[in-house]
Amino acid sequence: MRARLMTAALLMSSVPAAAETVAISAARMFDVASGKTTDRPLVIAVDGRITAVGRQGELSIPADARLIDLGNHTILPGLIDMHVHLTSDPTLSGLQRLRYPGSFWTAIGTAMAKKTVDAGFTTVRNVGSGDYGDIGLKKAIERGSIPGPRIVPATYAIGATGGHCDSNALPAEYTRDRPGIADGPDAIRQKVRELHKYGAEVIKFCATGGVLSLGTSIGAQQFSQAEMNVLVEEAHMLGMKVAAHAHGNDGIKAAIRAGVDTVEHASLADAETIEMARKAGTWFSMDIYNDDYILAEGEKNGLAPENLAKEKEVGLKQRQTFQAAWKAGVKMVFGTDAGVYPHGDNARQFAKMVEWGMTPADAIRAATTKAAEALGREADVGQIAVGRYADIIAVAGDPTQDVNLLRDIKAVVKGGMIVKDTR
Ligand code: ARG
User: What is the domain extent for residue 273?
Assistant: First the structure.
């Protein structure tokens, strides 16, 4: 099959033409739902959504179909990263960030979005950005003005005064604009409504201190139980899921009790908390690659000694918690915190997840079917299945044997259009 390819240049020019049919073929397909690999798959998509999945020679190709032959490769669904910050650059960490205006971070976000989709991540949940940068990126990507993944935006991460989601570097006389900060149930409820009004599709908040903030203790809870309860109640009422940043055990517990959908980091969860999460069906989204990058590059990138000390406290413990939580049956998704390490390297985390207890297929599911489930987006992303977007990636071998193949994505199709092809 000789392909007539839709190029990235065409993608840039406009919104896709109406009623376009594509037929995508390859040598093999890894079906994440069944865990089976099939030979000679054929996927038909109309207007970017899959209308049929079958085998070459069995399923007929519509006469008007544009052919995308991914050759001797294995296809699988476009990947989903549940925790990114597209408007961050890890090489600009620490105080040097204060020298750049809000517009700078949105501007670099366009490059980060391209790196992300080129790495095979066709959907991301952006859990915190300033200036509604993720909304601008999302709209530009959806128009076809710039390449990038589908974005589920949180806009600002909500946090308590002085907490991990605040910016604590400057003395009072230099600190003005803190749009994500809210204290007390009423202010928090109002903040959730406000972010929703301006485009948030998920609410992110800080339930404990963090590694990369100043003056916060990782173990310490931030926001009272009553504050978290209101935040989750309001977000759910508006149809949004809630992601809680939480390293410390008490904060994780309070977040689970409040009914959050995903706990981010979850580093210091003990056995009792793990059991609580399992019972409640709360997802863990654990960024267990991060530690390697932060310890190797953090100092050079401008992180303060305080941040590095906190990373040393939490890194190994988080991986052990990951292993214990997975073993105990906690539902887990793939979330990396890209932006803390370089965008485009998202898939490096797969090998860590395998090292700490998952099979390659489990790890791939965490970034596809499971992530779609946690997003409430089983209708349109996370699987090569009828009704979903034709978001398909190609690798040169069997990723269930070598999960690191996902670090070298040969082709990316998003909504039936080729956004990357390096075969
Ligand atoms: N954004 C997170 C924080 O500042 C990054 C944590 C990275 N470290 C880790 N071991 N996952 O808390």
Answer: 79-346
Pocket test for ligand 1, best of 126, 165, 211, 216 (most atoms within 8 A of CB): 211
Structure tokens at 275: 């059991």
Residues 92, 236 share a domain = yes
Instruction: Give the CATH number, domain containing residue 71.
Output: 2.30.40.10
CB atoms under 10 Å from CB of 18, counted, come to 6
CA of 395 to the centre of ligand 1 (A): 30
Q: Which residue has the tokens 């009423």?
A: 186
**What contacts 396, CB < 8 A, 6 or more positions away?**
72, 73, 74, 405, 408, 410
Counted domains in the chain: 2
Alpha carbon separation from 87 to 107, 234, 268, 338 (Å, rounded): 8, 26, 27, 10
Q: Which of 290, 301, 317, 319 has most ligand 1 atoms within 8 Å of CB, for mutation? A: 290
**Distance of CA 199 from the midpoint of ligand 1 (Å):** 26
pLDDT tens digit sequence for 50-88: 999 999 999 999 999 999 999 999 999 999 999 999 999
Residue 270 three-state SS: coil
Prediction pTM value: 0.95
Classify residue 244: in a domain, yes or no. Answer: yes
Same domain, 40 and 135: no
What is the whole-number distance in angstroms between the Cα of residue 61 and the centre of ligand 1?
A: 48
Give the nearest ligand 1 atom to 265 CA: 11
Pocket of ligand 1 (CB under 6 A): 210-212, 265, 287, 290-291, 294, 311, 314-315, 318, 337, 340
Whether 373 maps to a domain, the answer reads no
Distance CA 265, CA 288 (A): 8
pLDDT score at 423? 86
CA angle 213–242–183, rounded 5-degree value: 55
Q: Is the dihedral of CA 242, 244, 245, 247 positive or negative?
A: negative
What is the atom index within ligand 1 of the atom nearest the CA of 288?
11
Q: What is the tens place of the pLDDT at every residue in 164-204?
A: 999 999 999 998 889 999 999 999 999 999 999 999 999 99
Residue to mutate (ligand 1; options 287, 316, 318; most atoms within 8 A of CB)? 287
> How far apart are the CA of 291 and the centre of ligand 1, in A?
8
